[in-house]
Each structure stands twice: as structure tokens, then as C-alpha cells.
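Standup notes
- DV: blocked on the single-chain target, sequence here:
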Amino acid sequence: PKKKDIRDYNDADMARLLEQWEKDDDIEEGDLPEHKRPAAPIDFSKIDPGKPESILKLTKKGKTLMMFVTVSGNPTEKETEEITSLWQGGLFNANYDVQRFIVGSNRAIFMLRDGGYAWEIKDFLVNQERCADVTLEGQVYPGKGADENEKVKNKTKPEKAKKKKDAEKKSSNSIKEDNRATKQREEL
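- DV (later): unblocked, structure below
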């Protein structure tokens, strides 16, 4: 190809030149975006079969993770901002890198760069006086600030879902029996 003077390059020429430079660069593993980094190997000897959280800790290590935190009482958004700011400061002093985003008048998201520490942070948060609950990986953990009705409600959610499924199975069985009876009548 004919060589162009650099002053005659257009945007397409500059883009091709940039691609050539990036292709030859060796990008360090830490500079890659999270979804392009290789997964860290999991040491199965550290997994405790009695604690499913230990599996989650190892699989989330080094990955970004978010947890929802609810502030108890009926705080304004400004109060929620102040309370969660104190919690974030306490976590920062304990060397946990946490970012905080307010998403409602009483809710905040805590974003962690390393999800391996999520359960330690959850333990800290649920022991705070004004913490109603912490939601981590779909599991709701009641906090110290939750009233007794909320604590009972959070513990009984799986049981209610199981009872509902059993009721649906019973109703579907009765429908099947009804259908069988009508088929027999039609055959006669």
C-alpha cells in the first residue's frame, strides 16, 4: 500500500493505526475489564459442606458484588444518606473498599470490588442499630434494627413459598382427576 503523509490521515486511517498499536500492546491482567479476566481457581479444600456461604465466598472472590441495605424506622433520604455514610466510613476504616448509592428513602446499595468480603461486611451491617435488613445474593438477612414482625416474616418466607407450591400441586391433581372422569363419561 502507498504510504500517506501523516497530515493527510482521515478518521478511518487514525482508527486503523490505533488498532495496530493496541494489537501489539501487552495489556496486564489487572487492566482488563472484569468480564475478560480469567476466573480465579477455586480451592475446594477450603469449602465447608455445612456452610453454603463458603462456596459463594470463593466463587465471588475478585468480582464486583452489590448488596441492598434497608435502614430501619421511617428515615428521610437525607437521614439514610447520613446513616449509610457512617457505615461506609466504618467499613473504610476496616480496610473494606465499598461504594454506596442511595436508591430510596430508606434503601442503599453497597457495591464491593471484591465479593469475597461480602459476608464479613454483611455481618457488620446486620449488627448496626438502624439496619433493618441486608439482601445479599437473593437472601435477606434481618438486621438489629428490624422489628420483630419483620424478623419473623423474613425467616418464614421459604415456608410460605413451599406451602403455596403444595397447594398448587393439590389443585392441579384435582383438575387432572376431573379431566379423567369426563373422558370416561365420553367413552361410555
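- Follow-up: The two ends are 87 Å apart (CA to CA).
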